[in-house]
């Protein structure tokens, strides 16, 4: 009896180890396979020092890709001098190609799969350094500001580790997006309008009727992060470790805005 149980336990443990190794193999294989799939139809126009850029080589020249990658490297250095990015960026030719590669039904400006070290962009205008907004009520974004936002998701992944990153994405998503928008220093949502809605001086119906809830969420996330890091001088590690009551935090920001102790004017 004992021998049978012991043998069964040993078999189970062996099976568990084999399963874990299989899962590990799939995960290790998944990233290169996914990145290979993302590169279909695109050319590697630039690759140096951890940053690779894939694009339509007829629309994006090597010098343009080099410039955007070097700008990104400098911007990331300013955020954290110890961070050395290892990311592949794919500028998709068509929206359909973007959605298939991103495995997404939505149409965001860009999408990052931090666990797979990949960032995908919807079609954008290289000559104008711009990405058109999803809706006419929103503002265009510069390509470099969106790229910095996306690259900072990779930074967060590295900084927080996989489990904390996933946990925070689920329970404190505003921090994940807020930090990226704060450093990217740009919003799709018009700032003046956003502040009026946030302070109750304008109607939230503007957001719901135009289906721009996600852009307003990004705006509020950036506002909260700016208030904490820029105005209250909270350190980045305290930002991550403190569990803020969101309603309380918003009331505090509203109060500071109305009393003109705190201003948020950048676009
Ligand atoms: Zn984001």
Question: Which features does this protein show?
Answer:
single chain; 267 residues; alpha/beta; five-stranded mixed beta sheet; two-stranded antiparallel ribbon; 11 helices; 58% helix; 10% strand; globular; binds zinc ion
Brief synopsis:
With 267 residues, this protein is an alpha/beta fold. It is built from eleven helices and seven strands.
Give an account of the 3D structure:
The protein is an alpha/beta fold and 267 residues long. It has one domain (9-258). It has helices at residues 2-38, 62-79, 95-102, 143-160, 162-171, 173-184, 191-198, 205-209, 213-231, 236-241, 246-258, and strands at 43-48, 51-55, 87-91, 110-113, 118-121, 130-131, 141-142. It has a five-stranded mixed beta sheet, sandwiched between helices. α2 links the parallel β2 (51-55) and β3 (87-91). α2 crosses α4 and α4 (143-160) crosses α5 (162-171). The radius of gyration is 22 Å and the shape is globular. The protein starts with a helix and ends in a 9-residue tail after the last helix. The model has no long low-confidence stretch (mean pLDDT 90). The structure holds zinc ion. Zinc ion binds at residues 149, 153, 177, 180.
Largest sheet: 5 strands, mixed
Rg calculated over all Cα atoms: 22 Å
Bound molecules: zinc ion
Q: How many helix segments?
A: 11
Arithmetic mean pLDDT: 90
Structure class: alpha/beta
CA distance, first residue to last residue: 73 Å
Write down the domain tally: 1
Helix percent band: 55-70%
Strand order of the largest sheet: 1-2-3-5-4
Beta content: 5-15%
What characteristic shape results from the CA principal axes? globular
Question: How many β-strands, per DSSP?
Answer: 7
Which residue ranges are poorly predicted, with pLDDT under 50 across at least 5 consecutive positions?
Answer: none
Order of helices and strands: HEEHEHEEEEHHHHHHHH
């Amino acid at each position: 009896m004992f021998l049978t149980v012991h043998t069964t336990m040993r078999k189970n443990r062996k099976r568990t180890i084999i399963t874990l190794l299989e899962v590990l193999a799939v995960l290790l294989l998944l990233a290169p396979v996914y990145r290979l799939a993302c590169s279909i139809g695109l050319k590697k126009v630039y690759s140096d020092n951890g940053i690779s850029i894939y694009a339509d080589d007829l629309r994006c020249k090597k010098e343009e890709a080099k410039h955007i990658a070097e700008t990104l490297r400098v911007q990331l250095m300013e955020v954290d001098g110890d961070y050395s990015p290892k990311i592949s960026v794919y500028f998709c030719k068509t929206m359909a190609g973007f959605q298939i590669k991103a495995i997404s039904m939505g149409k965001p400006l860009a999408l990052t799969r931090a666990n797979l070290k990949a960032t995908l962009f919807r079609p954008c205008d290289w000559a104008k350094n711009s990405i058109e907004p999803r809706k006419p009520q929103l503002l265009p974004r510069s390509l470099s500001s969106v790229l910095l936002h996306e690259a900072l998701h990779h930074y967060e992944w590295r900084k927080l580790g996989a489990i904390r990153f996933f946990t925070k994405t689920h329970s404190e998503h505003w921090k994940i997006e807020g930090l990226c928008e704060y450093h990217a220093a740009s919003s799709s949502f018009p700032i003046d309008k956003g502040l009026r809605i946030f302070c109750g001086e304008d109607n939230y119906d503007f957001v719901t009727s135009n289906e721009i809830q996600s852009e307003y969420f990004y705006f509020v996330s950036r506002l909260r992060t700016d208030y904490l890091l820029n105005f209250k001088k909270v350190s980045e590690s305290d930002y991550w470790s403190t569990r803020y009551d969101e309603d309380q935090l918003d009331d505090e920001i509203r109060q500071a805005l109305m009393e003109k102790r705190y201003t948020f004017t950048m676009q």
